[in-house]
Amino acid sequence: MSSLSANCTVTLSQAALLPQPPVALTTPAQAPLVNTKPPRAIVTAAEPAVQATLLDRDHSILAFNERVFHWAGRADVPLLERMRFLTIVSSNLDEFFEVRAAPHLAAARSGENRGPYTLASFEALAAQAHHLVERQYALYNDELVPALQAHGIRIVSHGQRTAAQRRWVQEYFRHEVRPLLIPVGLDPAHPFPQVANKSLNFIVRLKGGDAFGRENEIAIVKIPRVLPRLIRMPASVAPKGAHCVSLSSVVRAHLQDLFPEREVTEFSQFRVTRHSDLAVDEEDVRNLRTALRQGLQQRHYGEAVRIEVSAGCSQFLSNFLLAQFNLPSAALYRVHGPVNLVRLGQLIDLAGDPALLFAPTAPCWPQQMQPGASIMAQLRKGDVLIHQPFESFDGVLAFLREAVNDPHVLAIKQTIYRTGADAQLLDLLREAVRRGKEVMAVVELKARFDEEANINWAEALESVGAQVVYGVLGLKTHAKMLLVTRREGRHLRRYGHLSTGNYNPRTARLYTDLSYLTADEETTAEMDHVFNHLASQNRLPRMRRLLVAPFHLHRRTLEKIEQVGLAAAQGQDARIVAKMNSLTDDALVRALLLAGQRGARIDLIVRGACILPAQVPGVSDNIRVRSIIGRFLEHSRVFYYRAGEQEELYLSSADWMNRNMLRRVEIAWPVTDPQLRQRIVDECLVAYLHDDRDAWILQPDGTYACPSHEGAGTGAQDALMNRYAVIRSRT
């Protein structure tokens, strides 16, 4: 923490000149913090912004995955971590097709323009995706596989197996795989079977007649998901290193066994990706939880949007699949390897070689929290900030655990969006109910791909008597809040936790997020208003601290951007630095462009999709956009505004996306403590603006410039790890 007096205020433009924290971030002193060149033009308040063509959101999402893919290709990244980044790209692409591809595909099929969705948009995105997938498999085959083999880690194909290994694989197939397979020969009585989303399957072409003398030449073999996709061979047949076989290779080697007395002439793995965004008409259901559970059963069988096949798949079989799923040829992806690279993540665990992974890091106990002391007593003295994953999420769990065990705590209220499989939070809330406390949980059932887990959470909490609500009809509750009410003498006092991230202990070790603990009366009272609104849907009273979507977060954010722009037009100090995951809201983008044209200096740290065209002459000269890709997933949302003498710093659960602003319940809250504000500025803004190793810079043509000091220079995440490692050593 910077050595600042309790009453000082700090401007970001001065931050590089401030006293350094006890443990320096080792950012280069000469690195530019702000745009130093004078603004190209000053626009008066009455002048409209220069019209700009915004970048395409879906192309920007794919460009983000290009940046993640870059980490898989970096020689300075440990080998198994490179494999992990490769699987992350595949997982991200799966979600892209599941959520974003359907409207483009519909326009391509109909030949009609549907807003931004056209045949041309489909073809352009398909070309970009094909190019990325081709480079994924080229990297896997040409670099990662040989490098893994050099370390004794091999996925042994059928042709490479010794006689002993083939016998072992044959026995494995007979005892573990064959009993679960049901090959289906297609004919009018046996139509094409339902193939689940992202499941592994084989299509087989046969020669000769079936038991009835009929020549039904196509058969489908569905591979059950319960089977592991990689199997490590025992030391008896593979004594050196970690030697594995893929399930697809096991099945492929024994396809003929599934069709005795017939000849397998052609075959291919295939995998279908389906549109998987659940659509439930909330106005027309009596019980949202029941409707979602029913919808989950159908998710695996939505509209097909992509087919992946082996590179050697014949034209006959690929055309058959395209016709079966009514897809254009551009939706077919031929791959030189397993059709699901995501499942290769199992290899990381099977290999079990710590030398090929990132050096382990242990988060330190939150530096503001005194171990063993009452957290609520500390909050009565001042607010507490936890910077995850450098500081431990255990501090949040300790706060909740203290509330559960404190007999003076009367009520606990919490939002639940993505909690993962970890049961600690669930167990604590159930224990709170058992101890007679009022427990209210706002469970967001519509958290994409976490619906089933959240339904189970809701049912588990209801079963012990907790009050469970599902938020506001038609909106997702994305705000992250935990509120504790405690009796202290003759009065009730509230203690609150606000966060930019989820209540998920696992992702808290992998995502950068900020947790904010406070006993501020005004802030916690407004948190209580939000909880009451979520339960009763009564109108919110006037809020002085929290900005709440969908009511006024969008409008107030636009106002703050405009204030900075007007200050710039009047020649005052004007500065915006915003860190977020995505920037795709048109109104906010155009407000930023106008503020920049008025002379405000704007730096945006946007990890993923960004539709704002940066550094375009005459349009966005004063706006820079950078994306940081690193060991941890950048997830914190931090917003700094400087308009003349007025300076504000907000944290938020919301990205600057239309859905966050208008179709979700979100919150943003101000940080008023000067020392905590400076700490956030140092660690979440200055460090990232000084990153000259992992930062990608958005160019005027919409592309991102690769980091210029790959493997060298200073990365913000490493600098923060170094800082907190020293803090940990001191404690």
Summarize the structure.
35% of the residues lie in helices and 20% in strands. The protein is an alpha/beta fold and 731 residues long. The strands form 4 sheets. Strands 14, 18, 19, 20, 21, 23, 24, 25, 26 and 27 form a 10-stranded mixed sheet that branches.
How would you sum up this structure, described in words?
There is one protein chain. The chain is an alpha/beta fold. The protein has 19 helices and 27 strands. Strand 12, helix 13 and strand 13 form a beta-alpha-beta unit. The N terminus is likely disordered.
Distance between the termini: 16 Å
Please state roughly what percent of the residues sit in beta strands, choosing from under 5%, 5-15%, 15-25%, 25-35%, 35-45% or over 45%: 15-25%
Helical run tally: 19
Level of helix content? 25-40%
Net shape: globular
Sheet having the most strands:
10 strands, mixed
Mean pLDDT: 87
| Structural class computed from helices and strand pairing | alpha/beta
Find the count of extended strands (DSSP E, 2+ residues): 27
The poorly predicted ranges are: 1-46, 280-286
Cα gyration radius (Å): 28 Å
